[in-house]
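Annotated sample (chain length 486).
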Amino acid sequence: MSDFKNLYEKLIEYSGTPAYPFHMPGHKRRMMFMENPYRFDLTEIDGFDNLHEAEGILKEEQERAARLYGSEETHFVVNGSTGGILSAIGGVLQRGDRVLVARNCHTSVYHGLELNGLRPVYLWPEPDGKTGIYRGLTREQVEEALGKYSDIRAVIFTSPTYEGLLSDVRGICESAHQRGIPCIVDGAHGAHFPWAGLPDAVACGADVVVQSLHKTLPALTQTALIHLNGSLVNRERIRKMLSVYQTSSPSYVLMASISQCMTWLEREGAGQFERYERQARELRKRLANMKQLYLYKPEEDFDWGKLVICTRNVPGRAVYDQLREDFGLQMEMTSAKYVLAMTTVGDSPEGFERLAEALEAIDLDLQRAEAAAERREVMNPQAVRESAIAPEGHAVPEVPSMPVRCMEIDRAVIQPMEEVPLDKADGRVMGDYLYLYPPGIPMLVPGEVIQMKHIERIKDYLSQGLEVHGGYSKESGNVKVILHHG
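Output written by the structure step:
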């Protein structure tokens, strides 16, 4: 008898466990607003409109979403923010255009650059010195770049980031608009901002904003919105691209989920977010007493619902694994120095309590381990001498330097390629993307040179159990590089 369980069976089995989701989607498997989806999984029959030429119920639904977000024009997206970002880039820019891009953008932005043959000028946001978390872009950074390059045709950046940090969207848009340049904002993690009291990119003047409903609101995975504003972008062209990058048979189950989410926001959003914010801030206050762990809190505005749990003397992976294995708490992601717990309006008081108790228990264990280590050092003079010269905790991350670019992305991806061992890749030109997933921000893109510092960083990530994706093969340990480059 085979022990094989299909995907559906495994999902049912997992859903019956006490595992609690501090990860996407935002409904947390609790806020269920729909009946059996098979009952209304249909196609574009009479009376139910066509998403790509909406003139009936779907047109009305999208207009309702625009009113809720204060946008001039809003469209449903049923293959996540990725589809919206690709549509925005393809609709706003023309092949060969130069574009200003924040280097910490998601891979979907780079795919948009690749598919449209664009010529990026990268801006690298400043990283936090202890954690390596990228801060937001400033108006000054963007103005300086726009002053150097008179042929920039658009600015593309992320706000909020995966960890919840914000760029100066209003200032950046004002600066770009003075030059007649539109701004595309990947706001995938910010669909809840208007109800969370945070500066929403639509309200701050961005021309195109893409938001994932499923990340932070009670909607099914793959649901998103794209908002269009102002006269600097070709809206007709963006609408065309939405039909290119989305299926011609959009799921009515997903669109119904968007509709139900909009209804919930209209009827209950304000009160539910008030409750959620109170619980989240109480949790932050309670966890402020931890000694070996701490919650990252930037000086500037940030999404208070993103709990970035930083570690002082242990790898983030160790805390991530312990939360899952010992406490049944599944986090969103882990990095070398922190673990990300995504809280949303869908979280329960019991979930918050479980997380607080787990982190307090882990923190206490780490305090005890540190005290025991100190006692051993006192008994071992040699250990004391070594600890005096050894760095404490994690090394401070270096400020990243821009990789050497030998070839544009669209040209690099069509070159003949080969795989070589990671250790022997120094000086070779990448034929694919290299990134940690999550969050999916490339360390290197096709056409850039892999250097020893990149190799060492990748090896360090792998040693900590982090997932390197793209042009790296976990099975062989090889990376994909361009065969010949002279």
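Annotation: The radius of gyration is 24 Å.
Annotation: The chain has three domains: 57-265, 269-389, 409-482.
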